[in-house]
Amino acid sequence: MNKRSKDLRRRQRIERTKLEILRCAAEAFRQRGVSATTMEEIARRLRMTKGNLYYYFRSKEEILYFCQDYSLDLLLARLEDIRQSGGPPDEQLHRLIREQVGIILDELNASAMHADFHLLSPRRLRKIIEKRDRYEQGVREIIREGMERGIFREGDPKLMAFAILGAINWTVRWFSPQGPRSAQEIGEVFADYLVRGLKVHEPGTAQ
């Protein structure tokens, strides 16, 4: 194996370990809150030394940042895929809602990332807000397109997007992986209800 291949495998191994740390930390944040979770506890849950944990992340704030950044990158990638695939706005929004629920409940173990922006440094906070705003803008564009095509009822796309995203983000507060419904099932139900609430109903159809 040449040096380039060894370096690639080493980088891949580091990235896998970092993702494992993020998943474990996110679960701890969900259970105890970010403020109450220490680096010692994260290391203990991972069965690694505190020094080893600091090799990958310099602080709890850095872990929190990368948890949020990782989730937002996934959301933006899904948004881009859905927009490029085309299709009616209601179908795009349905798919996006379903996938967003899956990401925030499954990818990082239902961590309450969205409520802890204020714990980040100003520089990192700006980066997270920029990505969050890009995603919110994408949701508004889908809603606006649906209105223009007569699929969604008239209204304020910004307020509608906030209502949808607020409902989705709140799921991290009550979701339990051991509960009766999986993240995928919850995503499907939310997508059905939220999209149906925006649609124009033909006379004589059920509301």
Task: Provide a brief overview of the structure.
This protein has 207 residues and is an all-alpha fold. Helices cover 72% and strands 0% of the residues.
How far the N terminus sits from the C terminus, by CA atoms, comes to 64 Å
Largest sheet features: none
Strand fraction equals under 5%
In terms of per-residue confidence, which ranges show pLDDT below 50 for 5 or more consecutive residues? Answer: none
Question: Could you give the count of β-strands?
Answer: 0
The CATH architecture term of the domain at 61-198 is: Orthogonal Bundle
| Structural category | mainly alpha
**Secondary-structure element string:** HHHHHHHHH
Number of helices: 9
Helix content: over 70%
Q: What is the mean predicted local confidence, pLDDT?
A: 87
Shape: elongated
State the CATH superfamily name of the domain at 61-198.
Answer: Tetracycline Repressor, domain 2
Radius of gyration: 20 Å
CATH class of the domain at 61-198: Mainly Alpha
